[in-house]
């Protein structure tokens, strides 16, 4: 055999084994963490309606908390002023109820994936403050009201603050100013008084975001409004964010008197031409940005697992402050990161690989926390 052919066979072997090397482990992801915090996943319509039965089984087996990846967003659930699309969200909630899971609502007020009619009049101009207040109230009352008693907590306002701590100049802010946040919390509490209410955002390791969210928690509390938690989305990479800053934010939110949730965890293994997680920040595809089409090489796999383990160590040592850790998707093949910020890539960001097998960092944690050898 020619040496270079032998070499490529060996390399191919390594790459394949990186994807499917773990011994089968009987433990479920949620059991590894016991009662420290719930373990969630974002789910798709196909998973709750049964079109993806393998994914559905993996959710039931591994997770005790679910959040809707898309079907409760304004553009999906309230596409026209007088028409709601309830079926996918109803199925999602029923799936959670049936399987005795914690059900998280995502999200009530967000500038992205907002229905096109929501913020403008027939001429396409922004509506008045009064009109937007009424629309927010109607929307929140209808959506949170429909699932009253079934949803554990709502991401009430998503992504309101910029990295430097200033308010995002979203249409909600342009029309209503800072007041849109307390208003959304007031309406959500009126619609479902028992639901927990959260602020949710990405890049939470940034000092500016940290400080503004701490201030916001205080302001909402001072006004007698309910706020239960801060969601740190945690769409992270191998070299961002700085984990010291990330943990500092986690502690600062807890010290401000709310629960902390890791709400959208995914760790990209790919080059990241765009930071943060603003869904409208995208970059064009080129092959150099998609280096692991055929599998993650052994060294990258080790790097990825070690980074994920560092994140988990942060969660474990702050377990008193954290109520939930949610992965943004079930298995690598499901992840939105295959399509964002660069379309058409092959990424490896989640707890389960494309065969729904647990990643090595989980097996290591199982050993460490439970003496379980798999
Ligand atoms: C993403 C979904 O995963 C994608 O399917 C969709 O096309 C775009 O939105 N922050 C959030 C999530 O709060 O709702 C986003 O989800 C990812 C970034």
Question: How does this model look, in words?
Answer:
The chain has 374 residues and is of the alpha/beta class. It contains 13 helices and 9 strands. It has one domain: Alpha-Beta Barrel (TIM Barrel). The longest helix is centred in the last third of the chain and has 20 residues, at 298-317. (3S,4R)-3-hydroxy-2-oxopiperidin-4-yl beta-D-xylopyranoside binds next to loops.
Brief rundown of the structure:
With 374 residues, the protein is of the alpha/beta class.
- Specify Rg, calculated over alpha carbons: 21 Å
Strand line-up in the sheet with most strands: 1-2-3-4-5-6-8-9
What is the mean predicted local confidence, pLDDT? 94
Name of the CATH architecture: Alpha-Beta Barrel
Which spans have pLDDT < 50 for at least 5 consecutive residues? 1-23
Helix content: 40-55%
CATH superfamily: Glycosidases
Keyphrases for this structure?
374 residues; 13 helices; alpha/beta; 40% helix; eight-stranded parallel β-barrel; binds (3S,4R)-3-hydroxy-2-oxopiperidin-4-yl beta-D-xylopyranoside; TIM Barrel
Break the fold down into its secondary structure elements and pairings.
Elements: H1 3-20, H2 29-33, E1 38-43, H3 45-49, H4 53-62, E2 65-68, H5 74-77, H6 87-98, E3 102-109, H7 129-146, E4 153-158, H8 171-176, H9 180-191, E5 196-201, H10 207-222, E6 229-232, E7 235-236, H11 243-255, E8 259-267, H12 298-317, E9 322-327, H13 360-370
Parallel strand pairs: 1-2, 1-9, 2-3, 3-4, 4-5, 5-6, 6-8, 7-8, 8-9
Helix pairs in contact: 7-9, 10-11, 12-13
The structure holds (3S,4R)-3-hydroxy-2-oxopiperidin-4-yl beta-D-xylopyranoside.
